[in-house]
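Kindly draft a sequence, keeping tokens residue-aligned:
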Amino acid sequence: MTTPNKTPPGADPKQLERTGTVREIGSQAVWSLSSCKPGFGVDQLRDDNLETYWQSDGSQPHLVNIQFRRKTTVKTLCIYADYKSDESYTPSKISVRVGNNFHNLQEIRQLELVEPSGWIHVPLTDNHKKPTRTFMIQIAVLANHQNGRDTHMRQIKIYTPVEESSIGKFPRCTTIDFMMYRSVR
């Protein structure tokens, strides 16, 4: 069981992006849900609005599936949860799994959340702090607070490390971009 890295309530994971060491890659993935109430689906989960949310509609576990078209390096998963707003809909136990497809997913983190409020930063790294390479991430809500049935998740963000070169950080630049940068300097 892992305790996630919690940020102070309201702390935004976009601060990670501002450091220049990671970038958000959720838009490069295909997202699917095990179930949802009409009007409370993937669009709300990804709309950058902390007032909207995904609401499941069925039995547990509730699943968020994130599939990439190619094997992708992922470093951090950020989930926004708000116990004060969502009460029994708030997840209390989450499993994070990775793999090539639905048939070979392996759990890499299991989290116990106690009345979470704000962004929860989940490292997707091995014991040597090396980021994970995967085609698929699955977030499984195994239990909710107060034995709630359906769940709310307000936002999910996925971050990849920014590649570094000998003269600085470049977000996925090509050889041509690099040559242009050197010739301008």
